[in-house]
Design a protein that fits this description.
The complex is a heterodimer. Chain A is an alpha+beta fold. Helices cover 22% and strands 13% of the residues of chain A. In chain B, a hairpin with a 2-residue loop joins β2 (108-111) and β3 (114-117). Classes of the chains: A alpha+beta, B mainly alpha.
């Protein structure tokens, strides 16, 4: 029987230097020290105290540019709606979640400042991706992204926000970050 | 008024009954406390609050937990062995409770003219009683896992068997030093021997071994291999639910309390306090306060250490602790004889 030749590594093999593995006693000693170190670490975490934000009661303030639920606006002096029903927001919307049906303003029924107004303005918030393109597309700043992000509901159909809901003053539920925060 | 405890002194039957009820009542109430403390403290160790919604400061969380478990359906796999499956959690509970009987909370006191020892019993075999029930405790896990008829449970049961056996030896040997220094197995006499100096100082090695082995005995992290939620989905208690699971759960926390009480009794001087000599009625409070420190330690370690690998567990038990405990016993024996 030919004895197996001892394998010698070639030039392309890099030998890895390993520290000697500790003996059982040495390993136990090291483990003991490491355990104490670990205990110190966790106790330091304890001393630091909880970092939790108790969400429904406490909220993290959002940044001013945070894109939350949409708002429709009126002119403050006349009370007329800014939206003129041009549907540019609906055209810009990548999720196709805005539906605008325009109607003519009449002298008896004047809703907006322009020629036409949005008779139907609906945003399906279950589809909306909160990209803010509608806000950019709007030539009259009639639609902006608000700061509200608590929109969960029990029904999909309840997430289709109508014009009245979007025009209404939103409940001030979201704290806003100040500039220096 | 304190008199020296007489080993093997038995009170009238009604006092024994009353003591049993009181001690069981008090210690059993510590289970939900330990449960809540664990969840709260684990939270704090992880920058969290822990449960704080149920009741004031989450104080009713254990009640909610246990209530939920008790109202669940009892389920057992078709492959299980029914009666063993049912009694296994009871064995776990029973052995945990039985050990409490020998923990002394104070010396013999005079209550309305009757000598009452503030402990369940003070048998002359003392600490061997605890080991006897510790050994039976493993049947609770073993039978539970085996009778479940499930592979995960079986693996967990096998692990717990190997673990408990290997750590019981080291634990027993770690106490030999204490027993030699006292010259008695009785727990009250062990406590009395620590009046001047708690055994944690001269028997520090024994204390460390006892504590680590205690972690292994109670299946607490880092020695929770029988449970090993990650690999064994709960190990021996995989198939358990409802009240039976609650029994295992309670037994685990009772075991923490018991091991803490044993550590207090054997190494921290039981009801003795250094430098001060409080009145007798303070003694049980001292014992419980010291115990709470150990419960905290158990939780602290759980928050710190990851689970050991199985071979690490075995080599730690047999290669380190067993020789170390033997050496400790040997050195103590020599010193006791020399001095």
């Amino acid at each position: 029987m030919v004895p197996l030749e001892r394998w010698t590594p070639g030039d392309d093999v890099v030998a890895v230097q390993r520290a000697p593995s500790p003996s059982a006693a040495g390993g136990a000693y090291r483990a003991f020290g490491a355990t104490l170190k670990g205990l110190k670490t966790t106790l330091a975490r304890y001393v630091e105290g909880p970092q939790t934000i108790q969400y429904p009661e406490e909220k993290t303030p959002v940044f001013p540019r945070f894109r939350g639920r949409h708002k429709l606006h009126r002119f403050e002096d006349t009370g007329l709606e800014k939206c003129v029903g041009c549907s540019l927001c609906a055209a810009a919307c990548p999720a196709d979640c805005i539906r605008v049906v325009a109607a003519e303003n009449t002298p008896e029924n004047r809703v907006s400042a322009g020629e036409r107004y949005a008779a139907v303005y609906e945003i399906n918030l279950s589809r909306c991706i909160f990209c803010g393109y509608c806000e950019i597309a709007c030539p009259f700043d009639a639609i902006t992204m608000g700061h509200d992000y608590e929109m969960s509901d029990y029904n999909r159909s309840d997430l289709i926000f109508t014009k009245e809901m979007l025009l209404a003053e939103p409940l001030d539920r979201t704290p806003l970050r100040t500039a220096d925060e | 008024m304190t008199t020296v405890a007489v080993v093997g002194y038995y009170e009238p039957w009604w006092i024994q009954l009353l003591k049993a009820l009181v001690i069981f009542g008090v210690v059993f109430q510590l289970v939900p406390v330990a449960l809540l403390a664990e969840r709260k403290l684990l939270g704090r160790f992880q920058h969290r609050y822990g449960p704080n919604r149920v009741g004031p400061f989450g104080a009713l969380q254990p009640v909610a937990d246990i209530g939920k478990l008790l109202f669940k359906q009892q389920f057992r796999p078709r492959t299980s062995i029914g009666w063993l499956f049912a009694i296994a959690p009871a064995i776990s509970m029973l052995t945990a409770v039985a050990t409490i009987a020998i923990i002394p909370f104070s010396n013999t006191v005079d209550i309305f003219g009757t000598q009452v020892g503030l402990y369940g019993v003070d048998p002359s075999i003392g600490i061997l009683f605890a080991f006897a029930f510790g050994a039976i405790a493993f049947y609770g896990l073993m039978l539970g896992g085996w009778a479940s008829g499930s592979k995960y449970s079986f693996l967990g049961a096998m692990r717990s068997a190997a673990q408990l056996i290997s750590y019981e030896v080291a634990q027993g040997l770690s106490l030999v030093g204490v027993i030699m220094m006292t010259g008695s197995l009785s727990l009250t006499q062990i406590v009395e021997a620590q009046e001047d100096l708690a055994f944690i100082v001269p028997q520090f090695v024994g204390f460390v071994i006892f504590l680590v082995a205690g972690f292994a005995e109670t299946n607490r992290p880092p020695f929770d291999l029988p449970e090993a939620d990650a690999e064994l989905v709960g190990g021996y208690n995989t198939e358990y639910g409802g009240g039976r699971f609650a029994a295992y759960f309670a037994a685990e926390y009772l075991n923490i309390v018991v091991v803490s009480l044993l550590a207090v009794t054997l190494f921290l001087g039981g009801w003795n306090l250094p430098f001060v000599d409080p009145p007798t009625w303070v003694d049980p409070i001292v014992v419980l306060a010291k115990m709470l420190f150990f419960v905290f330690l158990f939780i602290w370690v759980r928050a710190t250490l990851p689970r050991l690998r199985y071979d690490q567990l075995m080599s730690l038990g047999w290669k380190i602790f067993l020789p170390l405990a033997t050496l400790n016993a040997l050195v103590t024996a020599i010193l006791v004889v020399v001095f």
